[in-house]
C-alpha cells in the first residue's frame, strides 16, 4: 500500500485537515496517482453546467465583507466602512472594491445560518447538507462534489467529474458513495513556476501499448479479488483504475491542467497567488469538461485575533481579485450561464469584537456569494438584525444554499442513496432552492 500525505491546515479548535490516502500502487509500470478520481461511469450528459466553489475554510467574517453595520456600536461594527456597488442600494466592504464594480454579476445571500459553531461539524453541514452529531475529521456524509460525480459525472469523457484545488479537501470525500467518487487533486500550487500535476504523464520507459498490456493483466488479477470482496469496494477501485488509465493517456487532460498556456496578463488579472491561480485553473478545467471544483486556497479565515489587519492586508485583497478575475473571464468567454461560482465558509464570525481584536465562530448568520449559473444576479438577498447576529428576513439553511446549486446542475436534491447499512438517505434532507435566485 502507498500512503500519500496531502496539505495540512489546522484551525483553532484543533481539527486537522491533514489526510492520508491509502491506495494500492497501480501495477502498471510503477504508476501511482495522488488522489482517487471522482468519475461516474460514462453515459449521456444532459448539459455542461458546472460549479466552482471557493471554500473559505475557517469561517469568513460576514460583518466585515457583505453585511456591514455602520450604525452599530463600535465594538460590533469594527474598522471597515461600506462602499456602494454598481447596483443601487447595495453596499459591501471597502476592501472588496473590484467586486463592487461588478456586483450586477454577483448575488449575496446575507441571511444564511445554522446552529453549529465547530469547524468540523460546521464544515460537514455546509459541504454535505447534513449536520453530523459528532466532531470528526472525515466525511460521514458525501460532499457535494462527490454527489455530483455520482449523479452527473464529467461534462467531457476523459476528465474527472470532481476536482479539489490545490490539494484534497479534508471533508470533501465521497463517504458511503464509494472510492470512485472521491476528488482528484493536482497536489501542487498552480502559482508555482514549476507547477505540474503529478503522475499525469507516463514514465519514459512505458509506452501506451505496454501500459495497455499491463492494464489487461491487472484486470485478470482483480477478477479474482472481486470474487472475495464482500463490501463492494473493488467496484469503486475498478472505476478508479479505468479512469486513471484514461487520464494518463489523454492529451486533453494534460492541456486542461497546463496553466502555463495562459496569457501572463490574464494570470495577473486573477492575482499571482495560490487563490488567484487556482481560480484560473478552475476556469480551464470547467471549460474542458470538469463538472465540480472546490478550491481551498488564499489563507485561513479563522480570524480570532487581529481580524482587521489580516482581512485588510491578506485575505480580502486576494479574494476580491480572484473573484473579479474569474467572473469577468467567465463572462468574456460566454460561460456565465453554464458555470456557477460560489464562495462560503463553515459559518460567519461573532459580530462582537473580542479582546484580541478578532472575531470568533458564529453560525447564527453568514453570507454566501453566488455568481452566474443562470441565476438572478445583482441583488443582496435577506437581512440580519442591527448587529448582524441573526437573520430578520428570508432566513436560509445549508439545505437551501446547496439545493440552489443542485438546481443549477439539474440534480434532484430529493434523490435517495443508500449507505452501507442500506438506510435511505436523500441528497439533502431539508431545504429548497432560494426563490430570489432561481425565480
Automatic annotation (TrEMBL):
Source organism superkingdom: Bacteria
Transmembrane segments: none
InterPro entries documented for this protein: Alkaline_phosphatase_core_sf (IPR017850), DUF1501 (IPR010869), TAT_signal (IPR006311)
Protein name as annotated: DUF1501 domain-containing protein
